[in-house]
Write a structure and sequence with these properties.
The protein is built from seven helices and ten strands. By secondary structure, the protein is α/β, with parallel strands linked by helices. Helix 3 crosses helix 4 and helix 3 packs parallel to helix 5. The relative contact order is 0.22.
Length: 236
C-alpha cells in the first residue's frame, strides 16, 4: 500500500558503515560483550532487517548507530561523519534531525497528547506551528490514528502507542530510520501498515534498519542479517 508519508518526505538517505564495532558492559560479576568487532554497510534506499535471539546484539547495534550509546571500539560512519567521535551536543542534534529511532517501549511523554508528543521534536528543531500541526496530523492519519491525536498515552492501547512512537521517529524527516521491534505490539493488520510504511520510506531513498523477531516482517526488507552473540552469522 502507499503510505502517504513518502509524499511529505524530503531528506534523502545516508550511507552507514560500521567497522570493527564493539560494545562491552562491565557488571559486578563479569564483562559482557554485546557487540564483538562487527562490520557492515547500509546504503541509502536500503531496508535492512536484523534478526536473532534476545541478547544477540541487535538493539546494541541500533543504539550505537542512533547515537544513544557509546561504542567501546570501532567507527560508525553516517554519511561522512564518524558519530562515534561526536560530542554530546553534536549527538543531540544528530538524534533530533538525522536519526529517527522507533523505541521498543514507546518513549512517549505521559502528560502530552499524541499530537503534542509529535510536535515537540519539531518545536525544538524550529518548525513553525502550522507545519508542526499539519505534519503531526498527517502522520497519525497514515497509521490509522487520525481521530486520536487529542488522547494521552495512557488513553491509548499498547499497539496505538507503538504507532504514535513510529510517527515520532518520522516527524523531523530524518534520512536514517532505526526501529527496534516496531511491530511487536501490533495486530496483523497494523503490522502490514507499519511494514509497508517503512518499506515506502526506503523506496523514497531513506536508509531503514529494523530489528525484528518476526520472519514475515523481515522478508519484506531488501536484506536480512542474522546475529548471534554480538556477531553477524549465517542463518541455520
Amino acid at each position: 500500500m502507499k503510505s502517504g508519508i513518502a509524499e511529505a518526505s524530503h531528506a534523502a538517505g545516508l550511507p552507514v558503515e560500521v567497522v570493527g564495532l564493539s560494545k562491552k558492559y562491565r557488571t559486578v560479576a563479569a564483562e559482557v560483550v554485546a557487540l564483538d568487532h562487527v562490520s557492515l554497510q547500509f546504503k541509502p534506499g536500503e531496508s535492512v532487517a536484523l534478526m536473532g535471539p534476545s541478547g544477540c546484539g541487535k538493539t546494541s547495534l541500533l543504539n550505537l548507530i542512533g547515537g544513544i550509546d557509546h561504542s567501546t571500539a570501532g567507527s560508525i560512519m553516517v554519511g561522512n561523519v564518524d558519530i562515534a567521535k561526536l560530542r554530546e551536543r553534536e549527538l543531540e542534534r544528530y538524534r533530533l534531525l538525522q536519526a529517527g529511532y522507533v523505541f521498543q517501549f514507546f518513549n512517549l511523554i505521559p502528560s502530552l497528547t499524541a499530537l503534542q508528543n509529535l510536535e515537540l521534536p519539531m518545536l525544538i528543531a524550529g518548525v513553525g506551528e502550522d507545519e508542526r500541526r499539519a505534519r503531526s496530523q498527517k502522520l497519525l492519519e497514515t497509521v490509522r490514528l487520525g481521530a486520536k491525536g487529542h488522547k494521552r498515552p495512557e488513553e491509548l492501547s499498547g499497539g496505538e502507542q507503538q504507532r504514535v512512537a513510529i510517527c515520532l521517529a518520522l516527524v523531523n524527516d530524518p534520512p536514517l530510520i532505526l526501529a527496534d521491534e516496531p511491530t511487536g505490539n501490533l495486530d496483523s493488520a497494523n503490522i502490514g501498515v507499519i511494514t509497508d510504511l517503512l518499506i515506502s520510506l526506503s523506496h523514497e531513498g531513506k536508509t531503514v534498519i529494523v530489528a525484528t523477531h518476526d520472519p514475515k516482517v523481515a522478508e519484506a526488507f531488501s536484506r536480512i542479517h542474522h546475529m548471534r552473540d554480538g556477531r553477524f552469522v549465517k542463518p541455520n
